[in-house]
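Fold it.
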Amino acid sequence: MTMPKNIALIGYMGVGKTTVGRALSHELHYGFYDTDAIIAQTAGKTIENIFKEDGEPAFRKMETQTLKDILDASHPKGCVIACGGGLPLSEENQKLLKDNCFTVELICADDVLADRLEKDENNVRPLLADAPTHEELLKKIGVMKLKRKAYYDAASDIKTETDVLSLEDVIDSISIFAEMWQDRQERIAQS
């Protein structure tokens, strides 16, 4: 089985990028990188505090640099990258993903996302801070997902559902399509 060297997971907040990324990296014996976790560790503060103290533009620059650093690093077997929800909004990041990764958009129904995000009390989402009720959160999720759809579409090679499929099925579907994608890339390179 020949797999892509880099597999990137993109999608809205709460779709399961970190959970799927850890499981997929374990299955493939790849390194695992979570861009938000790396940014928080490097900055020495939470994503929420980066947004408050430095602003969203500064955070977006950190995202791009973090993605470049991951892609520039040596990964003997390969790596799985769980990208922050807004990372594909930048054309530069879309190009980095397209040129260097097999990119999977994880998708999930809005009501499931709202439930997941409300239960995740330890992870404050700065872009959802102004949606205190379930109904407002649902509305905000719908609006944000619609605005981000074209960006996610431009960056991704496939989509897979994390609310319908089991984690094992998500991993299996990514692995199957990643192998097919890599085979196609190799055939294109040889022609």
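The mean pLDDT is 91.
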